[in-house]
């Protein structure tokens, strides 16, 4: 895949907006991840979160580990993460550093991450931008035997089924997406929409993936047909389940999507106007809700969330 450039160029202001707009993950999701990690021989000394952005998953998981490090290729994201801070189980400050997934701290002054010293490496809705053969090679060097790589992704791609006039809203969003945004989708975006079917796994990357166990590989899905039912208590993936937000919040959240960022860079004169791609979506949703008898005061967007978790063990 081509190198990711949109988020890498984010400013601290954009990083702050991203941190406020994006949903985080439910504690029960982390419990399921950590239960598998420890049950299969993983320890809880050192955590590395890769593609950490402003650090929500890093902070959520740091409380279970003695040391926690967040890496991201974007200086703006890392500046935001540092401003938000966070501590590990030992009380140490989380270390946030600018580093790509393919280097994982290699060559950074003042940061020591020795080969064979890391227990858990995570990537939260980020691995679709990695050079996966190089990532697996570096991750394999850093992990202890019995360590885990946990990669997951969240896709909120349309209205929840019980949202008023959901079918019309879904059709309208699909039409706007196809007409306005399809040209700005990259392969990474499509991997997320496909819940990482096709994301290269270590044994598909030649020699760079040596040392990982194919036989113990785990793939779990949430909110899909045949996947874990997120409506049942204890099975939650997102912190707020199906994302519910006002229309203003919808505009801000959708504005952090990378295809939208690229669309706006290509259409600067339309940003914030009635011709803005997300404003078009908002007006369409408002029309559909009015047709369903929803008052202006009661209008909210309820998104349908899907998730996937991939877990790979180091021999």
UniProtKB/TrEMBL annotation:
Record SUPFAM superfamilies: S-adenosyl-L-methionine-dependent methyltransferases
Classification via InterPro entries: Diverse_substrate_MTase (IPR051052), Methyltransf_11 (IPR013216), SAM-dependent_MTases_sf (IPR029063)
Domain of life: Eukaryota
Molecular function in Gene Ontology: S-adenosylmethionine-dependent methyltransferase activity
Methyltransferase type domain location: 48-151
Pfam families linked: Methyltransf_11 (PF08241)
The protein's name: Methyltransferase type 11 domain-containing protein
Organism: Penicillium antarcticum
């Amino acid at each position: 895949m081509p190198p990711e450039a949109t988020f890498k160029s984010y400013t601290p202001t954009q990083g702050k907006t991203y941190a406020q707009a994006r949903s985080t993950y439910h504690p029960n999701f982390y419990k399921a991840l950590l239960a598998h990690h420890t049950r299969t021989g993983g320890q809880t000394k050192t955590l590395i979160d890769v593609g950490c952005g402003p650090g929500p998953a890093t902070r959520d998981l740091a409380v279970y580990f003695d040391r926690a490090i967040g890496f991201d290729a974007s200086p703006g994201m890392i500046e935001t993460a540092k401003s938000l801070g966070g501590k590990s189980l030992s009380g140490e400050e989380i270390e946030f550093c600018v580093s790509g997934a393919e280097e994982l701290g290699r060559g950074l002054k003042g940061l020591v991450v020795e080969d064979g010293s890391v227990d858990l490496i995570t990537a939260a809705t980020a691995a679709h931008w990695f050079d996966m053969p190089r990532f697996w090679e570096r991750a394999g060097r850093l992990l202890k035997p019995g360590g885990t790589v946990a990669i997951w992704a969240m896709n909120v791609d349309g209205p929840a089924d019980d949202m008023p006039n959901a079918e019309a809203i879904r059709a309208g969003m699909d039409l706007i997406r196809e007409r306005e945004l399809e040209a700005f989708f990259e392969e990474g975006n499509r991997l997320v929409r496909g819940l990482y079917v096709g994301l290269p796994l270590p044994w598909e990357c030649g020699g760079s993936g040596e040392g990982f166990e194919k036989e113990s590989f785990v793939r779990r899905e949430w909110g899909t047909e045949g996947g874990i039912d997120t409506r049942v208590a204890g099975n939650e993936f997102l912190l707020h389940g199906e994302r519910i937000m006002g229309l203003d919040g919808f505009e801000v959240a959708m504005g952090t999507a990378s295809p939208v960022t690229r669309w706006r860079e290509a259409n600067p004169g339309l940003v914030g106007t009635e011709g803005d791609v997300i404003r078009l979506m908002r007006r369409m949703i408002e029309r559909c809700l009015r047709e369903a008898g929803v008052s202006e005061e009661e209008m909210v967007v309820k998104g349908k969330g899907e998730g996937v978790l991939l877990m790979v063990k180091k021999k």
